[in-house]
Hints:
The complex is a heterodimer.
Chain A: H1 11-33, H2 36-64, E1 75-78, E2 83-86, H3 87-107, H4 130-137, H5 145-161, H6 165-183, H7 190-222, H8 227-236, H9 241-259, H10 267-274, H11 277-302, H12 307-330, H13 335-354, H14 370-392, E3 395-397, E4 400-401, H15 411-414, H16 416-430, H17 436-450, H18 454-480, E5 489-490, H19 495-513, H20 516-525
Antiparallel strand pairs in A: 1-2, 3-4, 3-5
Helix pairs in contact in A: 1-2, 1-5, 2-3, 3-5, 3-11, 3-14, 3-19, 3-20, 5-6, 5-11, 6-7, 6-11, 7-8, 7-9, 7-10, 9-11, 10-11, 10-13, 11-13, 11-14, 12-13, 12-18, 13-14, 13-17, 13-18, 14-16, 14-17, 14-19, 14-20, 16-18, 17-18, 17-19
Chain B: H1 2-19, H2 22-46, E1 54-62, E2 67-73, H3 75-94, H4 107-126, H5 130-139, H6 141-150, H7 156-187, H8 195-200, H9 205-222, H10 230-238, H11 241-251, H12 253-266, H13 268-294, H14 299-319, H15 323-354, H16 365-368, H17 370-383, H18 390-405, H19 407-432, H20 445-463, H21 466-483
Antiparallel strand pairs in B: 1-2
Helix pairs in contact in B: 1-2, 1-4, 2-3, 2-4, 3-4, 3-11, 3-15, 4-5, 4-6, 5-7, 6-7, 7-9, 7-10, 9-12, 9-13, 10-14, 11-15, 12-13, 12-21, 13-14, 13-19, 14-15, 14-18, 14-19, 15-17, 15-18, 15-20, 15-21, 17-19, 17-20, 18-19, 18-20
Amino acid sequence: MIEFVKPSVDYFELWPLLLVFGVACLGVVVEAFAPRAVRYITQVVLALAGLVGALVGVVLVAQDVTTYDDGAARGILAVGGTIAVDGPSLFIWGLVLALAIGGVLLFAERHLDGGMSAFAGQASAVPGTDAETAAVAANREHTEVYPLMMFAVFGMMLFPAANDLLTMFVGLEVLSLPLYLLSGLARRRRLLSQEAALKYFLLGAFSSGFFLYGAALLYGYAGSMDFARINEAVRNDVGSSSLLLIGTGLLSVGLLFKVGAVPFQAWTPDVYQGAPTPVTAFMAAGTKVAAFGAIMRLFYVALGADRWSWQPMMWIIAILSMFVGAALAITQNDIKRLLAYSSVAHTGFILTGVLGLQASDQLAPGEITSVQAVLFYLTTYGFATIGAFAVVSLVRDAGGETTAIERWAGLGKESPVVAAVFAFFLLAMAGIPLTSGFVGKLAVFSVALAAGAWPVVVAAVLASIVAAFLYIKVIKVMYFDEPVGDGPKVAYPSVLTATTIAVGAAVTLVLGVVPGPVLDLAAVAGEFIR
Amino acid sequence: MILTILILLPLVGALVTAFAPAAVSRLVGIGFAGATLLAGIVAAVQYEADAGMQLTETHVWIESLGVHYALGVDGLGILMVLLTVVLVPIVLLAGWRESDAEGNGGAKAFFAWTLALETMSLAVFTATDVLLFYVVFEATLIPAYFLIGGFGRSGRGRAATKFLIYQLAGGLVMLASVIGLYVVSADNGTPSFLLSDLAAIDIDPITQRWLFAGFFIAFAIKAPMFPVHTWLADTTEKATPGTSVLLVCVLDKIGTFGMLRFCLGLLPDASQWATPFVVVLALISIIYGALVAIGQDDVLRLIGLTSLSHFGFIVLGIFVFSPTGGTGAILYMVNHGIATALMFLVAGFLIQRTGTASIREMGGVEKSAPVLAGFFLVGGLAACGLPGLSPFVSEMMVIIAAFDHHWLVGSVAVLAIVLAAFYALWMYQRTMTGPGIAPVQDLDRREVGIIAPLALALVLFGFFPMPLLDVINPVVHDTLAGVGIAQETQEAGRQ
Lengths: 530, 495
């Protein structure tokens, strides 16, 4: 009989996490009791206040944390060692919260589609029935999206901070379930949206099963769910290595599914296309950041000593992701699908940074580390992605958003500003200098090459060329092709979407020209608590 | 400071031009181009021949990656800077009306993008940090892309995409080598991208070869060399002549500039190791470029392809590793810039008048437009290396050096003189003489004013190349000393 010990909760360090969770619960209460007329404004204000408060909390905590156990890492292990509030956690928290604020602003946008948000009037009404017509006529819209999103944000914060396999699984589920729902709530093209949600749910549930199975096997190997104990077991080479290897493989399936790495990328284009564009923006940026945080923690902290086993696997997956993502993106004729495949390619580039893990004694003083490079890349990618999808939500015709690429022809003349901003985001994704994407690529390629993974870097360079073609193709359509029919129309957004786009573009430019401060911040974030 | 001012002036000019009222945007643009020209002249006056890298500025840019905002010029740099600041105002004046014509992207955009391109080019020629060089090297592509895609003949969007893909591919391959240099420097202690730090590192020969491959592929695409030249003809055919001047006479020089600075400067062993291969490619470029040029019907395409041949000479001069060859190559870079700019601009004026770029549909222009024909002839004769015009000096030096290197190399290279005479004079004969098309208007005073300085420069440097040689010789001396080749006489280039 194991005696249950009540863990002590470090309320100060966990404040940002708890605040987000509290606001999410409060949102559910609001949904139950507040009259319909005030729900929208209450939910938006509540969500924004919660996120901003949590962001302030992250900054305060980050200034307060001290060195852990005389090691290189700073931070604490909270709640009985299950949650690590360390430098990388705090960096990712800050990033996720900043992206979530952008997400809320996009969710709340009502100017683009005749005074209504992008979400369905009544999700339970079958498309094409009277119930749906009635919901549309009554100008209804779902405001549950805000608490759902806050739950997802909570999951995105817990996932990368989890310091044992069970907590990580909880984080994974809390992050995923609200996103499955959110994907199915589009106001227009509802069947596509519901199909996306179902696909995402089924495949996601399946991959969670893999994760859980892997966790069980690893527990069988190490006798503990705790990352530090697993690390110890790996170092001492206890037990059967086949349990370790199979467990690692199954855990990787669950995690790589979330970041959309090849061969687990099949859901990305359908979900990115079907989900309401604000959800796509938030999900694409936030999930990737959170899941890469979790991947790094699992592989560096728990399995760092076993890296000769998993690095070859990462090599192959990184190379496949880059090439398959870039090559399939070229064949797409829908802008959201194109961005989805491009995100698969970016997953490959980020993995290039992840596999650049080196022991600290192999690094020259001042040389960029793998964690630093990946955190920086995630920052650049997150802001560029959320900005790019926000721009996608502006280009519309009578049937809602026009996502067919050929309909974007002539956008350069129709709306020079929108076209220029979108072109800028594309150039950032292509990694052209003086945009953040270039410095991100430079950082991850550098750590990979320093770790001796030159074949991956060569492949990454070749894949970058393929990817560059794809982004240039879109720019060419916008600027140099003749418009089809009337050409695209650009809806004027309210200050909400405009702010998100402006901040995304500003961050993309600033990180391209003066990346120093954020790189330094990522360096200060330093190492995981081991 | 002067170099920073030089770089910032056109950038500010580009922004002001872009936001200025359409009525004055051209005046604003030319004003900034003129100011940049003045700044370039000031820099040239401050420059002292034979004093190595100078006018330097160094500031830390990205500390954790060892990147510096570091500028400086040697003789090669200052000549390229001068070439750039001189050609940009000329291009802007030549595009004064044309860029506003129906179907083009508007004069304002043309002026703003051209100034943006000037900023990036000047930064490329003055950067003394490898990553800074790379950043601006790639950044030149964006203005160039919009200049090609926004102005010129139909099909230019496609040409612009082809151009950008080629250049980005080269750039990304080079990125691998740039990162490789970073890793090498990190392995040697402190990560740094400064040229001076990197030059001090003794890189092992095998690593050098890999790094060399990355740099050389990028610079060969840029220069361009056979077999990665195919973007060149399409681009020059579709773009406006002004854009082609910027691309071929300024931007492409980055290729040969980079070979001297990075391949020879940082990777001397690998450069010597690759010499046979590069020399063969250069010879193929020389002969192939000239042969293909002969067969062209499109004037602009023809001129573009002649550059393939000329760049072959420049690369040959660089890679024979002799004082005469090196000096000839750098001199060639300047002369080619002037002569080809003249050819492109005159051809542009010709096409405006005849309404076609097809050589077959022209003829007899010299009867109605003798001045235009005269300038065209000067440009053509310069291209085929007539003594008395400046390209002759540089071409002779490269050929002499080629014979010194190996008699076979020299005798292949010398064939190009015959071919050049053929394409240049045959083009002149078919367009300007014989039974004519309807009479065309001759060049007006504005147009003569734009191109006359170029023609004068060709004659001037044809007879007095000394001022250029005084600046070039120290660079060649230093570069060859770095490669480990003793120099018999520093005055070798002065015959």
